[in-house]
Amino acid sequence: MGDDRSWNDGDKLSFSERDRRRREGPPAREKRPPGVSKAKEEAVTKQYIKKLDGLFSSAKGGAETEKLRAAIRAAHGSSGLADACRQYREVAGFPEDAALLGTFLDSGDAELVVGALEALQTACDAGAIKASGGLRSQIRMLAEDPDDEVAELAEVLAERL
Fold first, then answer.
1. 1 within a domain of the structure (yes/no)
2. Residue 87's domain spans which residues?
3. 26 Cα distance to chain centroid
4. Residue 113 domain-assigned?
5. Does the CA dihedral 31-32-34-35 come out positive or negative?
6. Is the pLDDT of residue 99 over 50?
7. How much of the chain exceeds pLDDT 90, in percent?
8. In a domain? residue 115
9. Cα(63)–Cα(49) distance, rounded to whole angstroms?
10. How many structural domains are present in the chain?
11. What is the pLDDT of residues 23-69, one digit of tens each?
């Protein structure tokens, strides 16, 4: 007779199979190719994970952009806001969402404010952004800015909203 196991003993090992496994030891693990150190393998893994984070991040620019967004939110209301906004702009350009563009408007840097107003104007024209009451009042306040370029752009945008 070949196999005396019943239909429900499929998971059980015979004594000879147990003895063989004890003699051979645990199953061999996958070994690294020669010349590849553990540190190099970990570095490559981290790089791969960083790329995947970028692919699955909701924001344009990936995980790095998410970190910069967090830095902008943390700097809001402080003297470092303009620097945080500049860093974001260098990596991902001007943001596409109204809340973050509103934060750019608070930066106090005329160049950033003008860029944010232009980005808001483009997004509003495309119907991508619907301005909230807070954003509208922020733009109306900028229409009285001492910088002529900022004031003119804010006036035009305030009329469109």
1. no
2. 42-160
3. 42
4. yes
5. negative
6. yes
7. 0
8. yes
9. 11
10. 1
11. 887 766 666 666 667 788 888 888 877 776 665 555 555 677 788 88
